[in-house]
């Protein structure tokens, strides 16, 4: 085993603090990675605070990881020392079920092993994430960073990017489609960029007038202030898809009214009950559907990285010294980040 520095949540009600973390010795199919950058996702905060009720401590968050290969196991064929690589939300899956066979490991029917907070399938230890100096991961779950992509601003593509790209690809979004993106946070601004790059006509829905210019800067063709009933009435029945990135309970009925017949409302941010309830007539009367989507498979995530490199798409980021991670969490709770914090892991070297 090798010891690396990390920052961890030690309890649900104390600040993140340094931890000396043991990384496993290389298995035959493992890749060892020096972490250079790690994005900070809102899920990190939820799990650190035990908001979902299943966190075990100490917990090292972080699943938007970009780094450099330092060593490989004897069976590894796709990577060599020095390669720039990424690790996203998953580090293992069964590889045998229908979902895995279809390249959708995020839906593994035997349980996906997440990058942190999961039980390792081989030795039972808890996985620990990217707020650390290094990570050891199965080759099959390591992604190659394309030439020309900025590694720091690409880190959030491994969660925020793939979370919005996967449903757009699954539903075949492209030219001649009208897509509404609800919310202008880390997920929403990526949804706008990606839907536009895929050829769709994109409208951002926001409750804030202040985000109109910002949305257009990120590629939105149009902006609708959803709290303005008159604006909502003008777009009734006009969209093929709604990409809903809002992570808290909200009324989706007005957005259903904005869909065409056969339109689809896609949830990627909400993992709580839908409140208020959906009015069934809004679905039945126009054969509309409500769908969900969870990140993306490994092959699809590599496709996303390559697509972003070709299109010049990156996430808007604010670089972060890891010593300021608790202040960053406080700012995330207030929505005070545009749009993702990314930790420069070089700052970890000075951690206590």
Characterization of the model:
By secondary structure, the protein is of the alpha/beta class. It has two domains: 2-159 and 314-350, Medium-chain alcohol dehydrogenases, catalytic domain (Quinone Oxidoreductase, Chain A, domain 1); 161-292, NAD(P)-binding Rossmann-like Domain (Rossmann fold). It is 24% helix and 26% strand. The protein is built from eleven helices and 17 strands. Strands 3, 4, 5, 8, 9, 16 and 17 form a seven-stranded mixed β-sheet that branches. Strands 12-11-10-13-14-15 form a six-stranded parallel β-sheet. The chain has a two-stranded antiparallel sheet with strand order 1-2. The longest helix is centred in the C-terminal third of the chain and has 14 residues, at 298-311. The model has no long low-confidence stretch (mean pLDDT 95).
Quick one: CATH superfamily of the largest domain?
A: Medium-chain alcohol dehydrogenases, catalytic domain
Weakly predicted, low-confidence segments: none
The CATH topology of the largest domain is Quinone Oxidoreductase, Chain A, domain 1
Q: Give the number of DSSP strands.
A: 17
The whole-number mean of residue pLDDT values reads: 95
């Amino acid at each position: 085993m090798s010891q690396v520095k990390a920052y961890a949540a030690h309890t649900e009600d104390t600040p993140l603090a340094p931890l000396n973390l043991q990384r496993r010795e290389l298995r035959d199919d493992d890749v060892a990675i020096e972490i250079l950058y790690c994005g900070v996702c809102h899920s990190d905060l939820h799990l650190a605070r035990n908001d979902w009720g299943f966190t075990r401590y100490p917990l090292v968050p972080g699943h938007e990881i970009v780094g450099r290969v330092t060593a490989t196991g004897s069976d590894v064929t796709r990577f060599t020392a020095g390669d720039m690589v990424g690790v996203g939300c998953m580090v293992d899956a069964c590889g045998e079920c229908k979902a895995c066979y279809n390249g959708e490991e995020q839906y593994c029917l035997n349980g996906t092993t997440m990058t942190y907070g999961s039980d390792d399938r081989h030795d039972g230890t808890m996985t620990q994430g990217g707020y650390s100096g290094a990570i050891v991961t199965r080759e099959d779950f390591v992604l190659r960073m394309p030439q020309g992509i900025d590694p720091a601003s690409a880190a959030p593509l491994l969660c925020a990017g793939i979370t919005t790209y996967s449903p757009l690809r699954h539903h075949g979004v492209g030219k001649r489609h009208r897509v509404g993106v609800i919310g202008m946070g880390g997920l929403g601004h990526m949804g706008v960029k990606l839907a536009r790059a895929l050829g769709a006509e994109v409208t951002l829905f926001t409750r804030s007038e202040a985000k109109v210019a910002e949305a257009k800067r990120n590629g939105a063709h149009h902006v609708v202030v959803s709290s303005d009933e008159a604006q909502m009435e003008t777009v009734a029945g006009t969209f093929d898809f709604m990409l809903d990135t809002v992570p808290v309970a909200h009324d989706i009925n007005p957005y259903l009214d904005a869909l065409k017949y056969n339109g689809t409302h896609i949830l990627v941010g909400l993992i709580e009950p839908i409140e208020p309830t959906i009015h069934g007539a809004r679905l039945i009367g126009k054969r509309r559907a409500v769908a969900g989507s969870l990140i993306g498979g490994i092959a699809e995530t590599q496709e996303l990285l390559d697509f972003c490199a070709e299109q010049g798409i990156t996430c808007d980021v604010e670089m972060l010294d890891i010593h300021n991670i608790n202040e960053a969490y406080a700012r995330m709770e207030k929505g005070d980040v545009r749009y993702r914090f990314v930790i420069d892991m070089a700052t970890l070297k000075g951690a206590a």
